[in-house]
Amino acid sequence: MLNKFFSLLYKLLIKCHRAQSLKNAIQQGMKVGQKTKFVGTQVFGSEPYLISIGSNCLLTDNIAFNTHDGGIQVPLISEGSDLPTIYSRYSLVGRVELGDNVFVGTRTIFLPNTKVGSNVVIAAGSVVKGDIPSNIVIGGVPAREICTIEDYYEKHINNLLIINNTNLSLDSKKKLVIEHLLK
After folding, report:
1. Distance (Å, rounded) from C-alpha 39 to C-alpha 62?
2. What are the residue ranges spanned by the domains of the chain?
3. pLDDT at residue 76 above 90?
4. Tens digit of pLDDT for each residue in 30-68?
5. How many CB atoms neighbour CB 84 within 10 A?
6. By the 8 A CB rule, do 39 and 15 touch?
7. CA of 48: how far to CAs of 7, 22, 98, 148, in Å?
8. What letter would DSSP give residue 29?
9. Is residue 152 packed enough to be buried (19+ CB in 10 Å), middle (13-18) or exposed (0-12)?
10. DSSP code of residue 125
11. What is the arrangement of strands in the sheet containing 58-59, beginning at the earlier edge strand?
């Protein structure tokens, strides 16, 4: 009974933390379009005002938006500077921009100076940097084009799991998923 209570309390605290993190990023200037959905936890970094996310995007769990690169400190130190003097004083910064209708898979990392077009699927675990055109699927480290959005649709349209009732119990959903996989 006590374990169940603490488990519920933990889930509630995580949910509150996620909501507060998103709220803080928006208050600090992050732009988010209409009907965009955040699932799980995202890290918006220390300059969320350099992040813009379009409309109808779906951002899944453990996504990191990096708008600065402190790695420049390594060559500065090798040239004679010391870390306490340069830490937090020297950095490379850049925007991260997502177009409309972008799906971002779990554990994706965005690096500074990244612009993603519209109608893009980003595979889980990708590291995204630079200009990404519209209407493609990307993935990998570094992220590269896998296929067009049209090819992705054609490949998967006949294998969709369709859930007409979004209020299914866990057992009912489990049964539906397993039946779908056995087809």
Report:
1. 9
2. 2-148
3. no
4. 999 999 999 988 999 899 999 999 999 999 999 999 999
5. 7
6. no
7. 31, 10, 13, 30
8. T
9. middle
10. T
11. 37-38, 58-59, 102-104, 120-122, 136-139, 144-148
Question: How far is CA 78 from each of CA 74, 81, 88, 145, rounded to the nearest angstrom?
Answer: 6, 7, 17, 36
CATH number of 2-148: 1.10.390.10, 3.20.20.120, 3.30.479.30, 2.160.10.10? 2.160.10.10
What is the distance between the alpha carbons of residues 38 and 148, in angstroms, rounded to a whole number?
24
- Containing 157, the helix (H) or strand (E) segment is none
pTM of the shown model: 0.87
Per the structure block, which two tokens stand in for 69? 């690169």
Handedness of CA 171, 172, 174, 179 (dihedral sign): positive
* Radius of gyration of the chain, Cα coordinates, nearest whole angstrom: 20
Q: Name residue, tokens 């084009």.
A: 145
**d(Cα 27, Cα 48) in Å, to the nearest integer?**
9
Distance between CA atoms of residues 72 and 78, nearest Å:
10
> Which residues pair with residue 63 across a beta bridge?
42
Tell me, what DSSP letter sits at residue 70? G
